[in-house]
Amino acid sequence: MRLPIAFLFASTALSAQSATLDLSHPPATLRTTTRDATLDPTPRPASGGETLVALTFKPAPHPSLTLSPQQGTWAWPANGTLRLRVQNGMPWPVTLTIDVASGAKHLTTTVGLPPGPPQTVSVPLQPTSPRAFGMQVGPPMPFEDGDTLRLVATTVDGAIDPAAVTSVTVSTPQPGAAQTILIGGMEDVAGSDDLRRAYTGIVDRYGQYTRSTWPEKIADDASLKTRASAPLPATASTQLDRYGGRIDLPAMKATGWFRTQKQGDRWWLVTPEGHAFFSLGVNAVNKTDGRTYVQGREFMFAEPAAAEGPFGGTSDSRSDQGSQRDNGMNHGRWWDVYANNVARSLGGGADVETVWRRRTVDRLKAWRFNTLGNWSDPAFAEDQRIAYTVPILIRGDFNTVGTGFDWWGRMPDPFDPRFVKAVTAAVATATKGVRDDPWLLGYFADNELAWAGVGPQGRWALAAGTLAQGPESPAKQDFLAYLKQTHGDVAAFAKAWGVPVSSWNEVAAKGFKAPDPNEAHPAIAGDEIAFLRRYADRYFSTVAHALKQADPHHLFLGGRLAVRTPEVEEASAAYADVTSINTYTDLPEHGFDVAAFKRLDKPVMITEFHFGSTDRGPFGGGVASVASEAERGKAYARFVNAAVASGVIVGTHWFEYVDQPVTGRVLDGENAHIGLVGITDIPFEGFTRAVTETNARAGGK
C-alpha cells in the first residue's frame, strides 16, 4: 500500500506512515545528513519526467548520506520493501551499501549499481539470501520488471523493527576517487513481491537462464541436436601409449598397473606400460548432476511440469551439515535438466546411456584429458577407454567429532573399532569388480573431511572437539591417555595448560573446554599437534592397510584434502601413494605448501580446481572466479603449467564436467558456470580449445 506524500508530511504524528519521499523536493520533516559526501539539491531531469538530485561520495573510508525523520520514527509495514530511485552518474559500476536502522537494530545490504538509466533498488525489510530460494547465488541485477528497471537486493542481513525506523543510510566503501550517483524518490511498500519477481521465470525449457544470451545458448531442439553433436577437433597423438603415457620420455619399469616413480628431480605417475603419465582429469563426469528442485519453486520455471515427467524424481536434501544447513526449497520433486537435454540431443532410445558415454569420452580425449576424476559414472569403467578413479566412501555407526566446520559432516573417529569395520566394508565395496583392471588409476578415501575448523584457531578444532566429548569417545580416551603419559599427574597438566582442574575426571567429563594455544602455555599447542598427528596417522594407516589387503596393485590416492593441517598432510604423505588436495586458487602453490612436499619427497595430485565466470547462464562464478569466459582458458593454462613445473604435482583434475543448474544442484544449491559443457551438453568451444592446448603441453604431444 502506498500513501501520497502530501498525507505523510501534513501529519503531525511522531511516527510517519508508509509513503513516497521525493528527494528532489524534500519536505521540512526530513533530515539529511552527509559524511564525507555532498548532496546537490538542484533537481535534474531524468527519463520519464522524474527528477533526481546528485549525491557525490568523496574519497574516504565510508562516505554516506543518511535520511531520517526530524522527529520520531517512520512506521513501515512488517512485510514491506524499501524502494529507492537511483542512477549511476559514473561510467563504471558503483558499490552501494544501504543500511536501514531502527535504533540499535540494523538491516543491511550491498548492491552493485551499474551505469545506465535510472532504476529502482528494492530492499526487502526482512533478512533474505539466495540460499532461502535454494541456490547459492541469486540472479544478476538489474532486470526489466515490466516498464521498471529493477535492482533487487537478494542478500539482506540483520533485522529491524519496521514500525520504528530511525534512518536510512546510503554509502559506498572507501572510494579511491569521487563517485556520483543520482537519487530520487524513496518509498516503503506493503506486501511487495519485488523479491519473488526477481526469481520468477528465470529458467527456460532447456534449463537456461532467460534474461540474457550468450554464444552457446540454444532456442530449439534442432539447434540443440546440431551443436551437441558437432564434430570434434582431430587431436590424436602418436607419442602416447594407449593409457596416455609419454613415450617421448625415458621409459620406466612396466608393472601392468599404474604406480608412482621419481625420475630425476620430478615425480611421475607411471602407466601400466611403463611411461610417464601426468593425470589430466575431470570430476563428476555423469548424467545426474543436472538435477534441481522444482517443488516449491514452480514460479522460477517456464515448464515446471518437467519435474513430473520421465526426467523427474524426488529427494530430500535437508541436513544439519554446513553445506545444507541454511538452504531452503531443498526437498520434493526435482527435474534432471542435463539428462533431459542429453536425451533431446541423442533422440532418446534404450542405448542413450552408452551413446552418451562414448560421446563424452571422445570429447575428453579430443580435449587431451586422460583421466575420469572422482564422482564420475562407474559405468565408464566397462568401456576401458580412459583411466578412472574410484571413491572409498566410509559410512557406519562409529563415533564422530565436530570441528565447527563440518561442511560435509563430522569427522570419523579412527580410534573407534567400529570405524575399522566400516573401512573394511567400504574398501570391499569400492574394490569389487575393479581390482584386476589395469585402467584403474587408484582410490580416494572419503572427501574433504573437516580436519580443521574455521578462523585463526581452526588448526586446533579437531583436538578441541575431541576433548569436548564425553569419556565414552574412543578419540577422547586416546587423547586423555596421551596427556596422562606426557604430564603424569593432573597438577602438572593443569599448570602446563593453565586450566583449573584438580582431577583427570574433570578433563574426561563431557564439555571440557580446551583453551586456545597461547604463548604463556606452549604445552597446549605441543600436545594438540601430537594428538592431531596421532589422529591423522590412525585414519590414513587404517585405510591404507585395508586397501592394500584388498587390492595390492592399485594406488591409494589419499583423502582429497580441503580444510587441513600440516599433520594431516604429513600423515597422508606417509601412508598414501599420492596425496590428493582440493584447492581453488589461482596457482597450486597458493593452495598448499609445495616446498613442504618437496622436503617430504612425496607426490601430490590436485583433485579439484576450477575457474568460473558469470557470462554463460548460471549465476555463480565458482569458488575461483575470473572476469569472463575468455579468462577461464588463460587461468587454466597458468594453473596447469605451474603444476607441471612444480616437480611434485603428478596431476590436475578439473571440477567439473557440466555446468551446475541455474537454480542450484539438488545436493546443496551450488549454481556456478564451471563446466566444460553447458547444461545443454554443448561444449564451450573457446574454453575447451584453450584447455586442449594446455593439456597437450602438460600431458605430452
UniProtKB/TrEMBL annotation:
Coiled coil stretches, renumbered: none
Checking InterPro entries in the record gives:
GH
Q: Where is the signal peptide?
A: 1-18
Q: Where is this region: Disordered?
A: 25-48, 305-326
Alphabetized, the UniProt keywords read: Signal
Its domain of life?
Answer: Bacteria
Q: Which SUPFAM superfamilies match?
A: (Trans)glycosidases
User: Can you tell me where the transmembrane regions are?
Assistant: none
Name of the molecule in the record: Beta-agarase
Q: Which organism is it from?
A: Luteibacter flocculans
